[in-house]
Amino acid sequence: MAKYKYAHHMCQSDVGAFDQTYKPGQIVFNSGIYRCKACGNEIALGKGQSIPTHHHEHIVLGPVTWNLLVFAQEHPK
């Protein structure tokens, strides 16, 4: 689970980017922390990077797929 120290730097959002599921090799559209849906492993990726194809695998837990967990905002308001 992602952790943070200063809550005033974070805000909750319901943008659709959090609902998209990524497979290994797919390019992400947002910089941020991505979480494996099966095992909970987390990785940080920059906008335009691709989900690693050989990061880890599971046999029992199902396929490796990822969701955006924390969105990194480029120009905060």
Q: Your description of this structure?
A:
The protein is mainly β. The chain has a domain at 20-71. The protein is built from no helices and 4 strands. The protein has strands at residues 21-22, 32-36, 42-45, 66-71. Strands 1-4-2-3 form a 4-stranded antiparallel sheet, with no helix packed on it. β2 (32-36) and β3 form a beta hairpin. It is globular, with a radius of gyration of 13 Å. The chain starts with 20 loop residues before the first strand and ends in a 6-residue tail after the last strand. The mean pLDDT is 90. This is Protein L.
Estimate the mean pLDDT confidence. Answer: 90
Indicate the structural class.
mainly beta
Quickly count the helices: 0
Question: Which series of helices and strands comes N to C?
Answer: EEEE
Radius of gyration: 13 Å
User: In what order do the strands lie side by side in the largest sheet?
Assistant: 1-4-2-3
- Biggest sheet layout: 4 strands, antiparallel
The count of strands amounts to: 4
Helix content: under 10%
- Envelope shape: globular
Sheet-strand content, in percent, reads 15-25%
Ranges where pLDDT stays below 50 over 5 or more residues in a row are none
Report, as a whole number of angstroms, the end-to-end distance. Answer: 26 Å
Organism: Rhizobium rhizoryzae
Protein name: Protein L
